[in-house]
Amino acid sequence: MLSLEQALEQILASVPTPPSDKTEILSIEQAQNRICAEDIISPINVPS
């Protein structure tokens, strides 16, 4: 059985880290299946 630390190490090792210097500005249509580089915050108050 793996310890929590060992399991976390294995999980993090299997996740690729995106290069931080390779970001793009895309339309919402082009953003499908992409990972957002930063949080998106609404300028207006919207209920969840």
Question: Keywords for this structure?
Answer:
mainly alpha, single chain, 0% strand
Residue windows where pLDDT falls under 50 for at least 5 positions: none
The Cα radius of gyration reads 17 Å
Helix count? 1
- DSSP strand tally: 0
Spell the H/E element sequence: H
Quote the beta fraction: under 5%
Helix content: 10-25%
Shape: extended
What's the mean pLDDT score?
A: 87
N-end to C-end Cα span: 40 Å
Largest sheet, in brief, is: none
Structural class: mainly alpha
Explained architecture:
- The chain is extended, with a radius of gyration of 17 Å.
- The chain is built from 1 helix and no strands.
- The model has no long low-confidence stretch (mean pLDDT 87).
- It is mostly helical and 48 residues long.
- It is 23% helix and 0% strand.
Quick take:
This protein is mainly α and 48 residues long.
List the helices and strands and how they pair.
Elements: H1 4-14
